Records
---
Amino acid sequence: MTTDSGLLLDMYRKMVTIRTFDARAVEEFHEGNIPGVVHAYIGQEAVAVGVCSALRSTDRIASTHRGHGHNIAKGADINLMMAELFGRANGYCHGKGGSMHIADFSVGMLGANGIVGAGMPIATGAALAAKLEGGDGVAVAFFGDGASNEGAFHGSLNLASIWNLPVIFVCENNRWASSNSAAATLSVEDVSARAAGYNIPGLTVEGTDVLTVYEAAQEAVRQAREGGGPTLLECKTYRWRGHSESRGNPPDPRPVSEIELSQSHDPISVFIDLLMEQGVATREQLQQIDQEVAAAVESAIEFARSSPLPRPEDALTEVFAP
Amino acid sequence: MEAFREEMRRDDKVFHICGNLGPLAALVPEFGIERLRASPISEEAYVGAGLGAAGSGFRPIISPGMMTFAFTAMDQIVNQMAKIHYMFGGQAAFPLVFRASTGGGRSAAAQHSQSPHPMFMNLAGLKLVMPSNPYDAKGLMKSAIRDNNPVVFFEDQLLAALPDRCPVPEEEYLVPIGEADVKREGSDVTVVAISKMAPEALKAADELEAEGISLEVVDPRTLVPMDTPAIRRSVRKTGRVVIVDEACITGSAAAEISAQITEDLETFRALKSPPVRVCAPDVPIPYSPVMEQYCLPDKDNVIAGVRKALQ
């Protein structure tokens, strides 16, 4: 286990930021301040933070429709994120993308993606770029259990394997592909078993334990940097909210007992216990971080609220690059 | 091939990902297999990988061979390639060339004889180039490689197989994207002809010249962006227009060009007869040569279209 208390507290801060950001985004959505759709990352914080903590800011990631956590973990600015959710002119995408398309190329975040599995080929290409550049950069593709049934998954793993690309395929198995249970839609118990078909390492870890994820990611990243090629890393996790927030609140197909059981294993609470046990921080110090994060998220909402809307005709700009 | 060699020498960020290297294999000795990547037949994966590399500082040229093979990659083309620059608020450029062959005429049947360019015109976010001769192909390919956007480059499969019909200078030159070319000046009827239809229109012009009918042949060369002013200028001069497009007629590029002509008041007033579209009928292209020839527009269809416009 890492003993770098600065790193551990940074992980904690990021996990709490993701939780708080999405909890507030959900509220603002239901109050009608955020249009469109929001897919909350709550419950899966340990995966984004564990993996991204093993990366450099120059490493690149491709994300999913549930991308807020990946953005925050990779170092994106929550003011610009929230402004984008509010559809404002100074959001990350100038109001053209919204929740499902937030990107920050300056921190290597190549974009959330509204199409299941579509980020995997893109991350594979970012890894190809890293290899062609000749350095030791790596790329990460985040995706869900549902995406592992897409052709993009199989094509990407094969391509990365035969070209020996420095890419880590991180499957966030939250047990539900939209409204379909993984048990009913996967041919395997563990998605990582599919790695064997592509002759790459595959492993499954407890995705609610941030340090377990971090250590597994570190090893996969080390291997990729040293020319050892791709890894399929499956993190078993659970999302606390329904597939997406929606105005009509359609019924969540998941059993209440399953949701409650998963929430009793909260990745943040587990990490708090560990940080205190190890003497990294006291409860008061962690609460201090919680308060700072809460203030920062409120400030992001205020920033978004007071930001200008785009002019309607701005819709016609940025179709092509200069 | 010269365009690739020149641009790969000029910029070490240019590389190829192909379903099949084909003639590009000739470049391997100079540039190596790292820059001439033969990919597994996983169009979705390698088209997306090209896009990811483009967003990471490279200039890939992605080629599935025939466009028909890349319909399995349409998510990456439609949902990612066309929209990714815009959706992210213009914060990153995706300079890539997506190169594929299209068109019929080889008895290859419906799946291998398609002209899907109108679909791509309707996507918003992709430039679309369709050259009609090797000179334009070289100059446009060089411009496409240097462009900071995804450029779809459709090469007619028969044009590519024809022996060179025009000189291709060995020296460096560019043909700008977005400029039509008047392939032949004339005074009676404008024929706007796309890709392989341009040589058919030129043959029709030769034949009709003997009858004293003068055709002006305009090749748009790029469909997105379309050089509408050049097309309208020619139509205002002749007052009559035939638009020749190998795509199925409904929603064809010819339909769009017709609208561009008629919705401009000055051009509309200059028309002496309605625009005529010469396209394929709305059927999948059939296998048997007699049926295929019936469906695909050629010189004789152009001549018939011209006669209609002159009525």
---
Amino acid sequence: MTCHDALDFLDDYLDGKLPWGQRIAFGLHLGLCRPCRDYLDGYRKTIEASRKAMSEQAVTNCEQIPDEIVQAILAARSQVPRSDRRD
Amino acid sequence: MESSISETETALVSALRAGEPAAYERLVRDYGGRILAVCERLLFNREDARDAVQETFLSAFRSLESFDGRSQFATWLHRIAVNASLMKLRTKRRHPEHSIDDLLPTFQADGHRRDPGSRWTNSAGEISEQRETQQLIREKIEALPESYRNVLILRDIEELDTETVAEMLELSPGAVKVRLHRARQALRTLLEPIFGGASK
């Protein structure tokens, strides 16, 4: 297995979906190839860091929806024709 | 992955279907923060996100009858929010996308890496704890071309499965996997300076 082959297998490896034979070959390649080990480590950290940076609290900086949006939604609902409403 | 609807959600859905005004307000207040976050993650623009939140709830009010209780109510609402955000993106003027080929690893003819790159010494948690760093990471995600960014956000951040993302984006599951892999590689390259890799 080359570094190029190993790159193609990264996602299936991380998802635990790599068939047994390829998993063995991938593991052997990683054991022998420092650059690929480092690449895999950075790839994993990319996923983790982006998840953390895009978390709910990080993005909105608040846990609750601002009141003006609530009022706008409720007002828009009240303008829906009665035939489309439940009340 | 999805469990069935909880008793609290069942009571809320019943109240909504009965047309109780207080139930509508409770729905918006209880789920609004999470829905706003979803829309902001996909749209990177507060005003557009607010529009998408409004469209999400109005769409949910209109289609309450289609909620069958097989998934959690929050999951159902989340899908509506993603679709509302994607619709918002589609209606915006599109710019030609730039190639991300320069951000992908290159290899020699024998399959070995051309550039071994650097080692990331800190954990993702350590690096992304600071607010300024979180903001930088978000800017790098935003810098990805939309077709890659959307797949990355839907799979890695919203944690939707490949088939669901394929359906939402009208792509094949195989195309979603390829785009996700390329997006992650490109983002890894963009984040390398932030993670301050150690040399070999």
---
Amino acid sequence: MWVGVWALLGLLLGVILGLYVPLFFPVAYAKYLSVAVLAALDSVFGGIRAAMEDTFDLAVFISGFFSNALLAAGLAFVGERLGIDLYLAAVVAFGVRLFQNLAIIRRRLLKK
Amino acid sequence: MKKYTFFFIFLVALIIGLMVTFQFRAVNKAAQGVPASRDQELTIEYRRLETEKANLQREINDLNSKLAQANKGQKEALSALEGELDSAKVAAGLVKITGPGIEITLNNPQASAEVERAPTLFTLRDEDLLRVINELRIAGAEALSINGQRIVATSEIRYAAPFINVNLTRIVPPYYILAIGDPEQLRAAMDISGGVVEYLRELGAAVDIQTSENLTIPAYKGSQP
């Protein structure tokens, strides 16, 4: 339960910081960031699912979180350079996994 | 390990919050701001306008130099015309002229002890003046005047008894004839034996010829035809 509190606290602080830091993210990179956000969300849901299955491993979670986000942003970047909308691949892949994870979490919650 | 878990969960949550809000702000800003493609378009447009401006600047310089040349040409043409006008005015006798020449003084015969001749027997007439002027002209006189009346193309020398009119102005003896030209040549033309001066002297007229290096002949004063 404490984990959830910490997570909420971090989220709140991040939002506040993000809203009030006088730093502007260049508009040209918004696409990459959006895919990275999607990947990060997927990692979070994966982490929640793992925690529910009692197979949560911090190292896996952290490495997955960062590598997924970086890979997604990198794909978007390369796709932009090559003229292929590669970020769509990231969006589809992570979107599908997101819903899968969500479905598993839902079933677990309902089974309880 | 448990403590680290809390910390990392906190960190991950923080990063997600940051990313989401950054993205939110970026999208919001993009909606208000200039899209990337528009940015490129404007850059291309700007470059195009820059080259166009450079071209127009070149054209301005070109036209300016052409204008300067045209002005210079106009100035030259103007000065040429002015020179022509000046020489025409000199030829027409409309300007005062100064130069070397001779001065001839003609007077009617004077009664004296040696020459017993009535003063009225011979007086200088218009023909005499005309002959003198004619001789001076053929000797190369550039400008002539009689008693301050400039002799121009339309000048008359006419007997209007008992006076002589020049330029419709009455003149009286003694007659001062000024001629600008080569003084030696003019003098030679006057002194030639059997010439007009000898003839007038024989008739008893007083003729005096002076060469001068600096004569001034006035401009024609009458109205221009």
---
Amino acid sequence: MSDRETVISCRNAWKLFGDNPKKFFASMSGSESFDDIRRAGYIAGVRDVSVDVGRGEMLVIMGLSGSGKSTLVRCFSRLHDITTGTITVEGDDIGAMSERELIALRRSKMGMVFQSFGLLPHRTVLDNIAFPLEMRGQDRHDRRKRAMEVIELVGLSGREDYFPRELSGGQQQRVGIARSLAIEPDIWFLDEPFSALDPLIRREMQDEFLRLQQMLSKTIVFITHDFDEALRLADRIAIMKDGAIEQCDTPDQIVLNPATPYVRKFTEDIEKSRVVHAGVLSRPLNGAAPEGEPVQASATIQQLARQLVNDAREDLPVADADGALVGVLNRQQALDVLLGDA
Amino acid sequence: MADVTADIEDTKNGLSSTRVAQILLVAAVLLAAARPVLPEFMIRVPEAWIPPFAQWLDYFFNVIVIEKLKIAVLTRWFAEGPLEFMLNTMANLLEGKRRWPFLGPVPWTAVAAVAAVVGYYLGGWRMAALAGGTFIWTALIGQWKIAMQTMSVLSVAAPLAFFTGLLLGITAWKWELVNRIIKPVLSVLQTLPFFTYLLPAVIFFKVGPTAGAVATIVYAIPPMILMTTLGLKKVSPEVVEAGKMAGCTRWQMLTRVYLPAARTEILVGVNQVIMLCLAMVVLTAFIGMPGLGAKLLAMMGSFKLGRSFEIGVTIVLLAVMLDRLSKAWVVKLPEHHEKGTPWWKEHVVLLTAIGAFVVFLALAQFVQVFDHIGRKQDFSRGKEIDTAIKGFLAIDTVQAFTGWWRWFLNVWILIPFRNGLLWIPTPAFILGIVAFSCWLGGKRPAIYAALFFSLVALSGWWDRSVITLYAVISAVILSMFIGLPLGILASRNERWSRRILLACDTAQTFPSFIYLIPAIMLFGVNDVAVIFSIVIFTTVPLTRYTIEGLRTVPPEMTEAADMSGATKRQKLLTVQLPLALPTMAVGFNQAIMFAFFMVIIAAFIGTQDLGQELQRTLAGTDLGKNFVLGICVSLMALSFDLTILSWAERRKRALGLA
């Protein structure tokens, strides 16, 4: 993502849990595995992670429970202090910030959505959503106005006087989302926001979330343990295991070229044709000019399935949204992906 | 399982605790058997060896605390200044004491009406009837004034205890060091007999209602601290993180996130504060606090059973009302109003309360009975009830029945048991206790038991301590014969267990003083009455936790037993009871703590134990002796507390229930 300005930059971050993590880290040789560290009485929440998040990008961090994904996102917002390494947000090292600066950063730039919503049970929907505004001392009238705007945005109009316990899970998470958006943050953290919801509602909320993101284009770090969800939403996916990032790449690349056996196991059951786009699979033109109707670079192989089976050409031209040719798609290769032999 | 894992742990560092317990027990038995040949100093600690704890403490309090540090100046200033001012204000409003603001007394009808509206708001018509009805009864029975004396102290003590407890709770939660210091202090405070609260209160805070209020406040603070820390610790981490991400400062975190989110626990704390305050306010009669307690004390002292009974009913009604209302407040959650609700409708309860208050205030100006019930107007039937009760007790069969029990318990159980315990040489007694503690709770509680009981032996009050212990043990054993079968029977049936649990919960809200009334009625003033009052008092927690333990056995386990073809009896003995035991142990522990509490109060009937001595110190300024006696009770209670809870804890962990 070199074309985007970096918003969050994380360099060699470690987060160890235990009695005296700093001292233990100093005594480490660097080659210890997760289990070695555990035997020494420490838990490696985050293990030597380096990753960048670009402006407007949606990075999905994905892994099984206990893989450190929630810990990592809490390090980005300094809900956890990292043991070593640096994390900068818009160029400022958050580890070096004073409490006052940190509060100012969170009040102006960051929003976060939690798995079990984290709503304040004694406040109405309206007061929950206005809470961050209240904390930064906005006056009552402004607070109310802004809160009503986001309530409308997430489709909760008419329920602003309800208490959290009077709402369904999906509605509660809408409140959580609205609250995180109230201060118009640039950076949006979502920690398994839809995991506590049942599958139908989850799907609906994902659509809703994509709609919001298209309107707002925030910089997003999204956590999930659901691979389908990750594939559906992500610009890039970072797969974590035992606190370390195994691979961080676009969904297409993760499916096509898994970097480690662990990632391969993850992607095995995925229907690749639904993930891989024609544009990714195509090879450069190199002067060649294949004939006939081009296929869209942004189409998935599955969407092209009928054409791939019926078309007799060996190579298909691939065009971008403007109709300009960008590459050549080998039909056999695409069919292999479609049939799962790739 | 528990024993296995515990043993494995223990064998790593030497002998298993069971083995240690056996060795200790053998040693104890040998020592006891050798009593005839033991030298005198092995039977009782000789007077000469006893360190003058009382004098040391007296020196500490009188010279250091009072003279050098001038603490008493500060405390007396508080007692005579702000505290007395608050007490007088409330006393003026509720019972018409001639003090600022010279407005009271508020007519009883106005109080009852407001109470009913509050009851309705918190819990619907039933609560309204309970709240209103309690005050109507109190007025009509002719006890309004004394009840209001009690309530005015309560209404000052409870809020003060609440705020102090809340502040200390927050401090203990925030700073681990404070928590570490406060925890053991709290467990001692919770086992300290209430007489020990009274004397320092008198010395540091002036005689009369002020001292009573202080003792009440101090007594009610510990559970508030515990509930506050518990509530704050339980706040969900995501709610905390949501607060942090919203950019809360530390102060905002505490006031806007933590405290509101811990609302339930804090309100449970409020409930406990109110109940303990009521129990204590009644007991402060012993240092001359006027009110329901003083009246009850006087009536029981002159054996006026009818009036005692009526006062007892008032106290019980007040207790039940305060308990139910505050519990209803715990579960009462805010609800939203539909859009466009007019202003008056949103505040309809408040407006009704104000309206009712004003109406009855006005009515009382013109109609005397609405203002107060005059001397000859009350419906008290003290004399009639008195005659009825005494007539009933005079019936031959009843007299034969109580007479026989009194004789049987005294001659065959209590006196032999007591003499037996007193016969055992002190070292053997201590060894026996330590063996018990080691076998049940493991090595750590055993070490504490050894230390604590040795201190008791060195206090110079050994015989009286043993008599105290004798009353506690015999009462708890007797109440097991009632409580356990009752609990087991009740737990078989959903409806019955709910009824009995409700009865137990209600009974637990009664101030302990109440339990003396039936005891005195049935058995008169003697040892059996003491044991009997403790037995009723301790049966309650035993029954309650037996039901709770049995009913919380996971259903899949009883289902597994059913599918294995177990009979009801087999299921009870092999599945339900073993799984319920840790919970039942908590009830057992509570029963012992209650017994220690009650046996001291029973000093009023005339006992020969520590309580009697304690009560005597109240008349003077023997602060040192008072403390030594109080600590003796506390140390014995703590030994049992540590042992039983340690067992329950280990057992629960072994069963995977915790």
